[in-house]
Give the backbone structure.
Amino acid sequence: MQGNSEKWEGSPESIAYRPGIGVYLTVLAAAAVVIGFVGFFLWYIPTIGLRNIHPALPYVLGAFLFGACALLFGGAAFVAGMAIKGRVPFYSKWLRWLLVKIYLPVMVMAGGILKIPKIRIERAFIEINNQMVRLMGRKFRTEKLLILMPHCIQFDECKIKVTRNVRNCAGCGKCEIGDLLSLSDEFGVNLFISTGGTVARRKVSEERPDAVIAVACERDLTSGLQDSYPLPVMALINKRPRGYCMETGVAIEEVRQAIRDLCTK
Ligand code: SF4
């Protein structure tokens, strides 16, 4: 934060960011059991009719369902393995598609059955997404990177309008926008303070960045990641010393690291 007398540093109530790979594995196991049961009945019921058409058809359907499940859970186990290790020899677009479009809804469903709070599922999803984006190994030009910040990061009593032009910020140090602006200048990265998810999505479609660093709460990040797929997005969970949507914060060093992970300089 820039030099000032009223330095804001958050509080112990800030929600700590913890990778949720354990949650991912738990819900994955639960989903395997549920899908196994459902899959059996999906196979068994049609076999009665299929057998009348041709005796081999139930086995063909069984082999198809088994192959689909093996592919699904093989992919999920692979994602978990690479998330635990933090590295993988190659990146697969297909696996990221599975994570966003299939595994997340399955995780939410299984989490509901196991009574795992949705926020933990979302954190697991965000963590795995970030690792996958890092593993893409692609380095983007800084000018093609967009940092998206929520408006609630601004000091509540600041009268300066930063959502239209972040450069209006006077850098007084009462919130982290001044630091983010310095970071944006240092790396030549575009910084945008958004008033909401719709505005953020519009900004992305206007700017057409190659990659995005987004800061928000778990719920907004999760929906943003789904909506913006296949765009590579590094999602950083905000600090919430005063609760949701009120003078939230971000770890500047995490943003700096995310820029380094994604960019060529
Ligand atoms: S937006 Fe800028 S001027 Fe306003 S409180 Fe934050 S750092 Fe200070």
Observations:
- The chain has two domains: 21-135, 142-262.
- Strands lie at 145-150, 190-194, 211-216, 233-237.
- The first strand starts at residue 145 and ends at 150.
- Residues 1-19 have pLDDT under 50 and may be disordered.
